[in-house]
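Need residues for this backbone.
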């Protein structure tokens, strides 16, 4: 709501000196928000890691590393050459049971926060049986390495020994977003570290099936799914030996489209539907390695459990570092049956898709669990497959068969989220048109469930077709506000009457709560002659319901969130946007400026997440994410969670706006109203006790509600202002 998206052209990334068909040829024109490309969330400063890493027995030991310094590459071009051969006979021992290859694209996760180095520390201290197993790491793709003496103008092959990692090869930096680099590393592992079983970990950012995996910040490149497929074919395919498992220690990669790429080359996929916290996987699972091969489904369970246990451990110590967690182990041998069942179901759904049932489908799509929405302003369109089938399937036999087939793929999964079943599919909705087109092109390239691709094309054709709703304005609709019989304002029902045509084409809606700036005493007519037309946004939500009589209800009960500090309760509520609703909690975001001023002046703009739930009826500050982005060109903005205790003051302010209408006299979107130049809000003292308080609105007569309704084709209209008392 009102978020301003920053876009830029991804032109450099598509400049590849190859003639084969490339997905990049389409998404080179794709406008992508700067904020996040499925990156792992940067979560904790080093001081905090020093404490929480005790859980995994960390001692931050360093292994020896190659020497060499110099400038790093900035050209966006492939420059990969096969990894030089080494005299591996000089090593003390080569394990013969399992070889796990780690493709470590350091990116800004390493150059800014040292997360790659920390994970190397975890691997060293995990107690790996190196006599029987090889942990082989290919490290590159970072503009700077925080630890271990690695150089940005080199790529290094590291082998884990009983004394830690040792470099076994170094050579000039190569583009880790080039498939030749990955295939060369895999061939290197096959040729020089033979074992009974092989596995691969892909470490870095993930952007889902449309954008791909990894961000080499030196070459400004990443691996799209077609390139990942090429790399695997030229290595795993050439050796005709399947990997036991491929794991993504990266965001948003547990999808059916990704599984379709991996299925010919691995037995299992281990990946996350949601974004990952910056610490990523807990590599203690490597301690399970022994003198016997561990099957992929068993190792997958170890990885999932260690990841979830570690996350919950961190959250217990630092509640404001909370992150949504998902991790799944997928049986790729069952993938083909799942794709076939989904293909059959979407053939059935596409046949029934027309302008009459399209609005119902849109309403259900809007309710499906999306991933990557909190930690990024980008809409990835990644939805949970099982939740999608539950909401749109209508209990048909084809939907039930597809559900069973997908469930059979998911060997093991765990999550702290609702409606996260283990694997996703890309179904863009209310997203950028170019991103949507890139999704369609990606599906065609993969030949993924052709009936699903046709369904999406038909779905978007109706969305972009002739107008279905002739009269979509709700400015003259009947409205009402009712309170409890005793006159208390702690429960209310705000309603808006829709016409039958509007009901039939209703897709989604929401409401804004606005504060009258003058009536709250912030602005006087002497200070601004237009003070009577000045309002402040207080809260926005999409939590509305449409009843059988055509009334749209705003779910506005006991959800005014105030701040309490040692100076007392704030005069007005926090300025919040509701971002997620479940059966157990409501989530809100507030924009804030965090400041220090006693010793050295310091400020940080941030998004602060507030959660109200049965466990926290007065709300809790769950996390804070910085808003400034240091490296927009590489789509890898800083997402390190902030400790509010590191600051002295939190300023919660917003701009007041004048009522603004279109040429027909209808209200515009509040965020398109004329800006007044006045700011309104309050400061919170963070040096003492502070907490949120949920209570009825103080002075409800100074607040109004505006409904907005979006029809099935994405057109939005706004009601008149409804006084709350």
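Answer:
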């Amino acid at each position: 709501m009102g978020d301003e998206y920053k876009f830029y052209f991804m032109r450099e990334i598509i400049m590849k000196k190859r003639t084969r068909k490339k997905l990049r040829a389409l998404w080179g024109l794709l406008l992508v928000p700067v904020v996040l490309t499925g990156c792992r969330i940067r979560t904790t400063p080093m001081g905090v890691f020093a404490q929480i890493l005790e859980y995994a027995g960390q001692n931050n030991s360093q292994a020896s590393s190659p020497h060499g310094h110099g400038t790093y590459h900035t050209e966006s071009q492939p420059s990969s050459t096969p990894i030089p051969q080494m005299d591996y006979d000089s090593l003390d021992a080569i394990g013969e049971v399992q070889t796990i290859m780690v493709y470590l694209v350091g990116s800004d996760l390493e150059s800014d926060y040292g997360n790659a180095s920390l994970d190397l520390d975890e691997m060293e201290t995990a107690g790996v049986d190196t006599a029987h197993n090889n942990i082989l790491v290919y490290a590159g793709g970072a503009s700077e390495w925080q630890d271990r003496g690695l150089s940005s103008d080199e790529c290094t092959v590291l082998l884990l020994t009983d004394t830690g990692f040792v470099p076994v090869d170094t050579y000039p930096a190569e583009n880790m977003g080039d498939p030749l680099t990955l295939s060369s590393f895999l061939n290197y592992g096959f040729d020089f570290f033979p074992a009974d079983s092989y596995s691969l970990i892909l470490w870095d950012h993930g952007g889902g099936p449309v954008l791909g995996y990894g961000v080499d910040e030196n070459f400004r490149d990443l691996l799209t799914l077609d390139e990942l497929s090429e790399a695997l074919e030229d290595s795993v395919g050439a050796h005709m030996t399947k990997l036991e498992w491929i794991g993504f220690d990266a965001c948003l990669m547990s999808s059916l489209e990704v599984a379709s790429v991996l299925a010919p080359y691995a037995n299992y996929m281990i990946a996350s539907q949601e974004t990952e916290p910056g610490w990523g996987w807990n590599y203690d699972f490597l301690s399970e390695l022994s003198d016997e091969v561990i099957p992929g489904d068993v190792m997958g369970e170890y990885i999932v459990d260690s990841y979830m246990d570690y996350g919950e451990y961190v959250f217990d110590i630092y509640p404001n570092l909370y992150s949504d967690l998902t991790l799944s182990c997928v049986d790729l041998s069952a993938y083909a049956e799942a794709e076939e069942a989904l293909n059959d179901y979407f053939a059935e759904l596409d046949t029934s898709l027309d302008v009459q049932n399209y609005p119902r489908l849109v309403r259900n799509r809007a309710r499906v669990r999306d991933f990557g929405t909190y930690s990024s302003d980008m809409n990835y369109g990644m939805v949970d497959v099982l939740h999608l089938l539950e909401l749109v399937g209508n209990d048909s036999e084809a939907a039930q068969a597809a559900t069973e087939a997908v469930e059979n793929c998911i060997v093991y999964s765990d999550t702290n989220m609702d409606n996260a079943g283990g694997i996703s599919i890309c179904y863009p909705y209310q997203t950028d048109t170019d991103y949507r087109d890139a999704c369609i092109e990606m599906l065609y390239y993969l030949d993924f469930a052709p009936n699903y691709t046709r369904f999406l094309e038909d779905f978007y054709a109706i969305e972009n077709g002739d107008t279905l709703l002739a009269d979509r304005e709700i400015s003259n609709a009947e409205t009402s506000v009712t309170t409890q019989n005793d006159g208390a304002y702690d429960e209310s029902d705000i309603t808006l009457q829709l016409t039958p045509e509007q009901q039939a084409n209703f897709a989604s809606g929401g409401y804004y709560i606005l504060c009258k700036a003058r009536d709250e005493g912030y602005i006087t007519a002497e200070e601004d002659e237009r003070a009577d037309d000045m309002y402040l946004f207080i809260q926005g939500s999409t939590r509305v319901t449409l009843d059988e009589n055509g009334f749209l209800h705003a779910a506005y009960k006991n959800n005014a969130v105030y701040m309490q500090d040692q100076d007392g309760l704030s005069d007005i509520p926090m300025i919040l946007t509701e971002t997620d609703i479940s059966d157990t909690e409501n989530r809100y975001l507030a924009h804030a400026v965090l400041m220090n001023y006693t010793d050295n002046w310091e400020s940080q703009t941030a998004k602060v997440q507030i959660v109200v739930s049965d466990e926290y009826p007065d709300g809790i500050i769950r996390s804070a994410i910085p808003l400034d982005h240091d490296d927009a060109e590489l789509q890898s903005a800083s997402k390190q969670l902030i400790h509010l205790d590191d600051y002295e003051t939190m300023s919660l302010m917003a701009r007041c706006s004048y009522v603004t209408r279109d040429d027909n006299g209808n209200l515009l979107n509040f965020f398109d109203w004329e800006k007044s130049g006045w700011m309104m809000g309050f400061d919170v003292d963070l040096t003492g006790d502070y907490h949120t308080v949920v209570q009825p609105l103080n002075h409800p007569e100074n607040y109004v509600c505006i409904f907005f309704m979006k029809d099935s084709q994405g057109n939005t209209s706004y009601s008149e202002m409804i006084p709350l008392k």
